[in-house]
Amino acid sequence: MRPEGKVPSRAGPPPPAGAGAGAMSGREAERGGALCLGLLLHVLLGCGSAQQPGGCPAGCECSEAAKTVKCVNGNLTEVPPDLPPYVRNLFITGNPLRRLPAGAFAAQRLAELGALNLSGNHLRVVEAGALSALPALRQLDLSGNPLASLSPQAFGEGGSPLEELALRGALRDQGALLGLAALLQAGALRNLSRLELADNGLLLLPAGMFGALPALRHLDLSNNSLVGLRNVSFQGLGQLQSLNLSDNSLGVLRNGTLAQWRGLPALRRIGFGRNAWVCDCAIEDLVAWLKESDQVEGKEALTCAHPEKMQGKALLKINASDLNCSVPVDLPSQLQTSYVFLGIVLALIGAIFLLVLYLNRKGIKKWMHNIRDACRDHMEGYHYRYEINADPRLTNLSSNSDV
Q: PANTHER family of this UniProt entry (predicted)?
């Protein structure tokens, strides 16, 4: 029998006071922390969704803090219809986007969109009104698109506040070039300050293409195939500061073009590098201008490409004795002058002839009357003989009279 009042020793020592309650409160704390963390995440996500009305389009990356949306290589065939209204910088590049229809951005009310990059897509057509619903647009990049049609009304009837336009490698089709020329000449981009037309293989530019760009400061025509600037007018470009004509096929520049550049007060940088200069008599004006002008960058490195005996010779070191000027330089203009002189001489001879006729008008009139009377007498003799030969009686009478 066990003694009364004794507790079995194998039950172990009793747990300290409050130990069970502490374990329970720890588990409850963990559950409460998890619940609070979940609520916090829910609140943050809710706030995030509230800060981005409309969300972010599929295939795009959006940053409200940077006011930027990037839709790069997203296989888009049209402008996303659900762009967030806060966007200021929009990149839609590397997509099979072939057409920019009228009102492409009209339904989205992108009042703050200032920079639009549509380069590297497959754009062929930009229709009238395609960019008319962007009142804050300042920069537009259409480079690397095989444009075939660029509507002169792409920015609508009222024009655009656009300041920078990049069309590198986008104007290889003549239709797109003519469309751009019509767009510029219409005055739709009078605020344009930078125009990039490099890498387009251009041979000649449409006449008067830059006539309605009074705010233009930077013009890039590099890496084309321009052979001359005879039909290009730079008048009215009073704000032009830099002109890049490097990597073209220019052989000579006429005095008319050089005179226009002399009249542009803000023009300080002209790039001529890597052109095929022809060093004959026609280059004298260019050489003289280079020696007196400080507008050309790196003019010391400009060298002759033709003829063979002048290859590699620096343009600044050319003298009149180095050029063979025995053949007239501008034969068409000389022929035109000769034709004008010939016309003047013929007109003078004609005037003298008419004056002589006028002074001798009485004698000429008398002479003409004498000739008329002589011709009349002669014709009457022929008529009389004809009547005699036609009447047999008169013929016999004539015969008897002769006998």
A: LP06937P, TROPHOBLAST GLYCOPROTEIN
